């Protein structure tokens, strides 16, 4: 999970992360691959309260809030305010877009304004974690 704060979580990456999590759990519980156990059953046996994806999302949100409260180079890079041109082709998904989608906010600007108030940002993270989106 080292460096997971800067990962962009797309649907394809999310599926791979969930698959590797189940694979890890099966290895830790010593369930052979020939055993006919569903993923839900494996999760029940592991009694994992939060998934790997939830932990990564929480780390991303806290790091994102920390960076947005500072007025430094990292803030400019994440918000995309750097000078220069983008590469040709389809635009890549940005960290800010993924965070806004996860929080269920319509615009990135509203989310960036919420990061300035630390207590409100923490409350927003806690609500998103409870909803499990």
From TrEMBL:
GO terms of molecular function: endonuclease activity
Alphabetical keyword list: Endonuclease, Hydrolase, Nuclease
Protein name: Endonuclease-reverse transcriptase
Source species: Elysia marginata
């Amino acid at each position: 999970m080292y460096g997971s704060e800067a990962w962009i979580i797309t649907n394809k990456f999310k599926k791979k992360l969930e698959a590797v999590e189940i694979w890890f759990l099966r290895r830790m519980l010593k369930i052979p691959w020939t055993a006919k156990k569903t993923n839900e059953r494996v999760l029940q046996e592991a009694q994992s309260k939060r998934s790997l994806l939830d932990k990564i999302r929480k780390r991303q949100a806290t790091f994102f809030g920390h960076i947005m409260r500072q007025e430094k180079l990292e803030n400019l890079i994440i918000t995309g305010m750097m000078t220069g041109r983008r590469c040709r082709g389809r635009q890549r998904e940005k960290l800010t877009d993924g965070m806004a989608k996860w929080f269920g906010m319509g615009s990135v600007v509203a989310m960036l304004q919420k990061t300035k108030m630390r207590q409100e940002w923490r409350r927003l993270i806690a609500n998103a974690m409870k909803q499990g989106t």
